[in-house]
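Batch job 17 of 40 flagged for manual review because the log was empty.
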Amino acid sequence: MMKAELLEVLQRYLKMLVIPVAMYSVYKLCSFLLPGPHHHSKLTYANKTVLITGASSGERPWSCFGVPALQKGAKVIATARSIDKLKELCEDLKRSYSGNPYEPMYSYLDICEPMNVESLKNLAIDGKTIHVLINNAGLSMRGSIQDTSINVYSYLDICEPMNVESLKNLAIDGKTIHVLINNAGLSMRGSIQDTSINVYRQIMDVNFFGHVVVTQKLLDAIPDDGCIIAISSVQGKLSIPYRSAYSASKHAFQAFFDALRCENRPNLHILTVSAGYMNTGFGTRALDVQGRPLGKDDANQLKGLSPETAACEILRAASARETELIMAPLSNKLAIFLRWAWPTLLFYILHGRGLKDDYITSRAR
């Protein structure tokens, strides 16, 4: 009797499972049939070339990405405008990680004037392949370009597309960039009405056009089983008050890499990271309505995620072949959902947030 009752209960609940099991089966079948980076094996960093843009940005710069990559046996190429800082960082890493057969290298690169970007391929392990591209460039002070016999570097300004190709020469084989990390960022504070059009142009140069050029020039050096890591922001999915130029540039940034996924290389692995607030000193370089650096962080950034924690999470997601990573609190994820489900409510909430913004409160004083 008990057996019959148990079978009856099981049959009742099994009927409820038919639809979700069928949907999951269709999902797995489509994933198997459709092309994409999920078919690649897990990304490993040993004997791979990792290229980082904007490597000297923030209070704790490229070492956040460079250290774990070096520990995993990668050849790391750091690019930025502050050559003095890059040289010092490379020397420190050489002393700390002597077990890695590949010395960390650096190259001058201004994301607003990318000259000879393609030459960076020559720095790869095989002289042509960049396995992972991390677009991480930010706005920093210009450093002097000095000769050195220890590290290899070349001139590159990411807002003027010249000589970008020469970065390939730094790869292990002189041609392959296995990992490219796109992380350039410049922010702003100010109302749409007050902000100079030149600020909009500068933000777009750094946050969008520079990445377009670097990615275009190095694309043929990145194999499908390598990785482009596009580090964006939650503001690439929804705009917030008094950050109009930054939000617009990050929307364009994400749309560019979404389009790249859909073109002639559907198996190319691209990871888009939508980051929340980060405690990196990023806000101190944000521009005001006239294009002057603010020189201070806001309270949200000071409470943000540490760059070391963020870098480890991003490299983990890349290794797992993820294509989207929202690295932000639950409240940010709910806001992204509301943008689709109930946009009117979201805009009302963001209007209320804007009334408490530092930009408004400082003008009221």
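Reviewer: the log was empty due to a logging misconfiguration, but the result itself is present. Residues 41-364 form a domain with the Rossmann fold fold (CATH 3.40.50.720). Unflagging and moving on to job 18.
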